[in-house]
Amino acid sequence: MVATTELDRMTWYRCEKCGLLVDSEMDAEQHEECCDGDSGSPSYWW
């Protein structure tokens, strides 16, 4: 489950495993499914 935070009047979605912020809830959920929590992003991400 991703967390939400507001920054600069925008809602951002945060991976609870690594803290990565993205502006799309769907992208955050997809990231979190593959996130190992250590490196901050899985190999396919960016």
UniProtKB/TrEMBL annotation:
Domain of life: Archaea
Domain DUF7128 as annotated: residue spans: 1-45
InterPro entries the record matches: DUF7128
This protein's name: DUF7128 domain-containing protein
